[in-house]
Each structure stands twice: as C-alpha cells, then as structure tokens.
Amino acid sequence: MGEKRDPRITRRALLVGGAAAAAGTALLAREQIGDAWWRLPGVTRPRKEGELDHAGARWRAASNANLRRADRPDDYEIDRVVVHVTQGSYDSAVRAFRDPGHGAATHYIVTQAGTVTQLIRELDVAFHAGNRKYNERSVGIEHEGFVDRPRDFTGAMYAASARLTADICRRYGMPADREHVIGHSEVPGADHTDPGPHWDWDRYLKLVRAALAAPEPSPTPSGARAS
Question: Residue range 179-196: average pLDDT?
C-alpha cells in the first residue's frame, strides 16, 4: 500500500489550485475580450467609412444587403481571387451592387480605362461567386465589358487588374497561379461563363507576376476618394 495522504492538505491544495485556475481563466478571458471585443454578439469591428484596401482605388459602397460583415482573414482565410466580367457598363454594375434587392456584389470593379473602384472591404464577405465557401475565402474582381467582345479587355484594364491581384496575393501570401487566381466559371456550382474564352490568362498572370516582382506600392492613404 502507498503512503497515507493527509486529506486536509489534499483538499487545501485542490482549493488553492482551483482558485488559481479560475483566476487565470478569468484573466485570459479578459485579455481575449480586450484584444477582440468586436467579436461579441451585436458588435462589429471598428472601421472607417470609405477606407481602402488597395492604393489608388476609389470608393463606392455596395449595399450592406449584398455582403456579410466579417473579420477576414482572422475568421476566414483568403486564398483565392475570382475574376468576373460585368456583362454591362461600369455604371450599370455599380448601380446593381448598390441596390439592396440585387443580392450580389463584388469587392472591386476595374474599368476599360484602368480605373479601380472598391465597393466592399476585403474584411467582409461579398456575395459574388455563387458559392458560400468561395465567397468566404475569396476576393472578387469585376471587369467592365462583355465576355463575347475581346476588344473590351484593354491593356489598361489588364495592367490595373494585374496590379490589384498582385497586391492581394502579396498581402495574403497567395501564389500567382491558376489554382489561386480563377474565373467565375471555375467556381463549383457556378452557372456563369465569365471571364470567357477571350480573357487572356497567360498575359494576365504574366502581368501579375511582374507586379509582384516590382517594389511594393506605397501604403493606402487613409480615407475615401468617393466619386
């Protein structure tokens, strides 16, 4: 038989240990709440109206009905860029994404002139891919034009979009390849055909990789440049 233990000592040790553990747990909980208090129910992460994720973009807010507030990449890892085509003009796409009844929106639109507009923060989940998992893990980029008109995909558009995609890849540590930069038509369950057969993937990814090899752009200025 083993040595008899004093039950009083055992009980005291348990009481002291239990109190210490409870205090430690409470302290840890306070620290966690202090570090991420916006995770509490009904609280959203602080953000500035019109703040941009990509230097040089302009801000036009999409309707909140066409996105889901989130805290990416902390709650959902970002590991995809999804390339879209608007099937219409820039103005018609902006109107649609600002319409709460439309049910869809994207993070960015790139015009044929090479102007980049941000409509949704990358923090948030945009309803753009038609697949919940892909929405949660991706950034969506629309391009002004029609899939059956190759002339719509201008050099200025390719260059501006490539800089944007390179910026996204750099910030989230994504490779610039066809596994991580995909078309809307490649999203599982998608019924869209964009960007279509005239989108030059070889040209586009070559431009993305060149932009990644260039010096990093200057930090995004604070505030919006609304139009």
Answer: 96
